[in-house]
Design goal:
flat
């Protein structure tokens, strides 16, 4: 991203007069070498990208993280940080964003041995646990 894009996003985040704001943009490139009998059996490349937004105002910290780099989504995340200070109905330190496509949430769950049905059940169970924990979770 260009410097001007970061500056624009920071301006959105700080427009409420927050005490501190930061954007953390991360890209991790890794290689996994698998050896069998001291011989290279496979090499796997993995690239992980993500961006997070954090601000502090009057001692309250707000955080949003996403891997959707579209301009629309980045502006929405920065606006969520700004607008969340005025929204007292939301838990002050919990605001995570996942990449969305076609109105469905895509999340990566490790362990490929789990079936799609098991992964869906795990997410539904986690959702129910979070909602039962507090009426502030919506």
């Amino acid at each position: 991203m260009q410097k001007a894009t970061y500056e624009s996003l920071l301006n959105i985040m700080t427009s409420t007069g927050c005490d501190y704001a930061e954007i953390y943009d991360e890209k991790i490139v890794s290689k996994v070498y698998t050896l069998v009998d001291n011989k290279v059996d496979s090499i796997k490349n993995k690239i992980t990208k993500g961006i997070s937004f954090r601000s502090i105002k009057d001692g309250i910290s707000k955080f949003v993280a996403t891997n959707d780099y579209s301009n629309e989504n980045l502006n929405r995340c920065a606006s969520d940080i700004k607008n969340n200070y005025n929204d007292k109905s939301r838990f002050p330190n919990l605001n995570l964003e996942f990449e969305t496509k076609c109105d469905t949430v895509s999340a990566f769950i490790h362990h490929n041995e789990y079936s799609e049905e098991k992964k869906i059940k795990m997410l539904k169970d986690a959702n129910e646990i979070a909602r039962n924990y507090s009426n502030l979770v919506s």
